[in-house]
């Protein structure tokens, strides 16, 4: 199961956003990493801007290059606006849905919960983080995992009304994926059109 295991604060500082979750380093050093990070005045090329946007999307959703490229090609063949379809498909990944439901504090933690068989889809254990959740499916915590401290801490005080495409039931610790989210409802600050332009070159 391939995943990014490199430095996270460094990447977050490069983009100036907490893309891996809350990061204390950003409040102290909100400038790019490296020896000249605070004094860098170099103008980024058009290609560099598009590449940075793609990298930001990859790191945000925890997807590696080949998988991201495959997802883009799939989105390009689907009906609708390619960039929006790409983001909707990324949002439909099981690890992301678990994160959006508040079962895990970060996408990396959600990926780990899925990989360790703590998550069920329609009552069946699914341990593939990239599993594409379909509208109407119910995602929940496995019965014997409901008392896990990491899950209870993540769910405590989480605002489940944040995402209109998810319906949460606190009693059963499960939620229904109602539909793929509209672009306006996805909070990530990703300029998906730049990603489309990059791959179209």
Automatic annotation (TrEMBL):
One of its GO terms (cellular component) is small ribosomal subunit. One of its GO terms (molecular function) is structural constituent of ribosome. InterPro entries: Ribosomal_uS4, Ribosomal_uS4_bac-type, Ribosomal_uS4_CS, Ribosomal_uS4_N, S4_RNA-bd, S4_RNA-bd_sf. Residues 92-156 form the RNA-binding S4 domain. It comes from the Bacteria. GO terms for biological process: ribosomal small subunit biogenesis; translation. Residues 3-91 form the Small ribosomal subunit protein uS4 N-terminal domain. Keywords: Ribonucleoprotein, Ribosomal protein, RNA-binding, rRNA-binding. Belongs to the universal ribosomal protein uS4 family. With S5 and S12 plays an important role in translational accuracy. One of the primary rRNA binding proteins, it binds directly to 16S rRNA where it nucleates assembly of the body of the 30S subunit. Part of the 30S ribosomal subunit. Contacts protein S5. The interaction surface between S4 and S5 is involved in control of translational fidelity. PANTHER family: 30S 40S RIBOSOMAL PROTEIN, SMALL RIBOSOMAL SUBUNIT PROTEIN US4M. This is Small ribosomal subunit protein uS4. It comes from Hoylesella marshii DSM 16973 = JCM 13450.
């Amino acid at each position: 199961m391939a995943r990014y295991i490199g430095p996270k604060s460094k990447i977050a500082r490069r983009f100036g956003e907490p893309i891996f979750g809350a990061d204390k380093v950003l409040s102290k050093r909100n400038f790019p990493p490296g020896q000249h990070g605070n004094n860098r005045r170099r103008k980024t090329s058009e290609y560099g801007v598009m590449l940075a946007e793609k990298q930001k999307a990859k790191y945000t959703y925890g997807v590696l290059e080949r998988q991201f490229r495959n997802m883009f090609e799939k989105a390009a063949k689907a009906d609708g606006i390619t960039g929006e379809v790409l983001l909707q498909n990324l949002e439909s990944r099981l690890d992301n849905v678990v994160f959006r439901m508040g079962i895990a504090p970060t996408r990396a933690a959600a990926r780990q919960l899925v990989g360790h068989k703590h998550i069920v889809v329609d009552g069946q254990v699914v341990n593939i983080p990239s599993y594409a959740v379909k509208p109407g499916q119910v995602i929940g915590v496995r019965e014997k995992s409901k008392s896990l401290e990491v899950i209870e801490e993540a769910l405590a005080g989480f605002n489940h009304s944040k995402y209109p495409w998810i319906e949460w039931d606190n009693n059963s610790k499960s939620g229904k994926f109602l539909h793929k989210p509209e672009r306006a409802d996805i909070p990530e600050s990703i300029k998906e059109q730049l990603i489309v332009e990059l791959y179209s070159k």
